[in-house]
Every structure is written in structure tokens, then in C-alpha cells.
Amino acid sequence: MSRTTVNGATLHYDEAGPADGTAVVLLHGHPFDRTLWAPQAGALAAAGYRVITPDLRGYGESDVTPGKVLLADFADDTAALLDHLGVGRAVVGGVSMGGQIAMEFHLRHRRRVLALVLSDTSAPAETEEGRAFRNRLADRLLAEGMGGYADEVIDKMLAPYNVTALPGTAARVLGMMRATDPRGAAAALRGRAERPDYRDTLRTVTVPTLLLVGADDPYTPVTDAEAIRALVPHAVLTVVHDAGHLPGAEQPERFNAALLDFLRTRLV
């Protein structure tokens, strides 16, 4: 684990793989941390890629910025981290909120994107109902902490059948959620409540793009991934069966196989 200060916040991050390998930065979702990507980091490093997995500000071991953190702030943090590491261009990937940060990164730092990997995410702007929900949830997390929320959503983060079939995975995901600082989670929720519409920027994507989605994802279902593919016609879409919102954790071998095949065959 390493750390650096960017844009006024100290970020903790892991690196794996050879320093001269193609850089792949993977952005976790809410309310997780960089260890969500452990199965992917190991597989990618073994295949010769330089894997960078940060704790987003407010999550894991990184500094908390109370109040509101926009997706643009996360994207700029990622660009600054790449600057610190001497990485000009990278494959930029993310799951859920991390996927939206990857889209924001493409919007703000387009020339630095070698390829996009978008897992279990959605492109439209937040709805009025969604804004109200995220702000209420932020208030609740600040008042109550993360425990009750984590227990309520575990069978949505993972497909319900995997909560019992994969107890180790369920325990790992619950542990990340419960350990998240409520102030960081709340700040990100308030920022996401203001997220813009990424459909216009997706229409301009020319780099190789991989879409992954759990077949039984209740938050961002397969139809959301299909809608992104309609905007990015050259994108590759892989539906990961026997998985919910976190297919990289639930079915890492299937997820990794799709990711590695994409990187081997689509990067030039």
C-alpha cells in the first residue's frame, strides 16, 4: 500500500504488476474500498499489466472530505494520482459509482483514456426522486452509521443466492461497507445526487470499451448496459451469469476472463 496527497486529500492506493506494463486503474463503487478489486488486480498483474487501485477520497484509508464530493472531484483525483505515478494514459475502469467516475474521467481527461471498462453502472443524470433519496440516505448514514444500511443492501449488492452460496464473499463485502466512514459515504451520495448525464460523452467514445454486468443486478440491470452499448456501438458487452451488482467479486473467474480477453484483443 502507498499513499500520496492530491487536491488536498491523502489517497491510499495499491499497485501490482510490472512498472512498464500497460496501466489499468480500477475505481471501486460505494460504499467499498480498493480491496474490492483484489481478484482482478492479481489476475491482471500476473498477465503483465500495471494495476492501480485507489481508495477514493472518503473511503478505505483515504482522507475524508465532509460535505459533498462530486464525481468530477473523484475523476480529478484519479488524474492527479496518475500524474504522481508518471502514467500518461491508462485503461480506466470502474464498477457502479466507479463506472460513473470513469465516464466523468473520459469527459474531463479524454486524451488520457486508453480504454474504458464499465461494470454495472448507468449513464443518465440522477432523477429528482433519486436526488431526494441519496440526500435522505446521506442524512441517515451520518445519524446512524453504516451497519444497518449494510445489512439492508447486502442482498442487492450481491445476488441473494450468493449471500448464502458465497459466505466468504458476503463477509468481505459486508466488512467493507461497515468499515466505511459515514462522512465519506454521505459526501459521495450528495455528490452523486448531482451527477450529470453522460450519454452525450458516451456517444463520442472512440477508444475500446468493455461493458460488464451481472445478470441479476437489481440496481443497474442488463438493460442499462445495453443502453450504453447503443451509445457506444463498438463496445463489447459481457453479461456475467450467477451474479448481481458486483460480478467481479461474485464471479471473479468469469469477470477476469472477459476483462483479460478484452485487453488482449482490443488494445493496440
Automatic annotation (TrEMBL):
Keywords carried by this UniProt record? Hydrolase
Question: What are this entry's molecular-function GO terms?
Answer: hydrolase activity
Does Hydrolase count among this protein's keywords?
yes
Domain of life here? Bacteria
InterPro entries, alphabetized: AB_hydrolase_1, AB_hydrolase_fold, AB_hydrolase_sf, Epox_hydrolase-like
Where does the record place the AB hydrolase-1 domain? Answer: 23-247
- Hydrolase in keyword set: yes
User: One Pfam family for this entry, by name?
Assistant: Abhydrolase_1
Q: What is this protein called?
A: Alpha/beta fold hydrolase
In which organism is this protein found?
Kitasatospora phosalacinea
